[in-house]
Design a protein that fits this description.
Length: 92
C-alpha cells in the first residue's frame, strides 16, 4: 500500500500535465494503464482529462472517459457532465 499511493499520485500528476499540454489522447492511454493496475483513482484526474477533451471539441472521447468512471464507481461532477452534453449538442 505504501508503494501504490505515491505511484498513483505520480500517475495523476502526469495525466494532468499531459492534459495541460494539450495531449489528452496520451493521457487517456496512461489512464487506462492506471485503471488496470490500481483500484482507486482521484476523480479530479478524470475531470482534468474530460475537460481537456471538451476543450479540444472531442465530446465522444470525454463521454468515453465518463463511462469508464461510472464503471469504476467514480462519480463525475454534475457541472462537467452538463458541459459535456452542451458541447456534444453544439458539435453534432
Amino acid at each position: 500500500m505504501l508503494v501504490s499511493k505515491p505511484l498513483r499520485t505520480l500517475y495523476n500528476q502526469v495525466i494532468e500535465k499531459l492534459c495541460a499540454f494539450g495531449k489528452p489522447e496520451e493521457a487517456e492511454k496512461l489512464l487506462g494503464k492506471v485503471l488496470r493496475t490500481t483500484s482507486n483513482l482521484v476523480v479530479n484526474t478524470c475531470h482534468v482529462l474530460i475537460e481537456s477533451y471538451l476543450n479540444k471539441r472531442l465530446p465522444l472521447s470525454a463521454n468515453r472517459v465518463t463511462s469508464r468512471m461510472f464503471s469504476r464507481n467514480l462519480i463525475p461532477d454534475l457541472k462537467l457532465c452538463q458541459k459535456e452534453t452542451n458541447v456534444g449538442w453544439k458539435v453534432a
